[in-house]
# Entry
Amino acid sequence: MVCQKCNSERVAEIGGKCSDRFHAYIGDRETSGYVDDDLGIGGGNYIEFNLCLDCGQVQGEFPLPPTFLETGKLPDEDDDEVDYDDDEGFCGL
Ligand SMILES: [Zn+2]
# Structure
C-alpha cells in the first residue's frame, strides 16, 4: 500500500480489539462503548486504520459526513422513510 497523500510506502496497518472500551471526544462531546464505524478508524470491536508514517495521513475518504460523536444521531435516524422492519433480514445472514 502506498500513501494516498504522499505516495510513501511507509503505511502502517493499525489494529486493535478494544471491544466496548472505546471512547472518543470532540470538545466536551463524547462517545463510548463499541467503536463508532463512522469515524473512519474501524468499527464494532476493532480499531483499524492505515497510517502513513511519513506524512501522518490516515488513509481513507475524507472529509467524513457528520458523525454520531458530533450529532448524537445515527446516519439514518433523520430518514423517516426507513422501514426498520426490513432490516431484520440482515440478522439472519
Ligand atoms: Zn503519506
Notes: Residues 1-93 form one domain. The mean pLDDT is 87. The first strand starts at residue 11 and ends at 17.
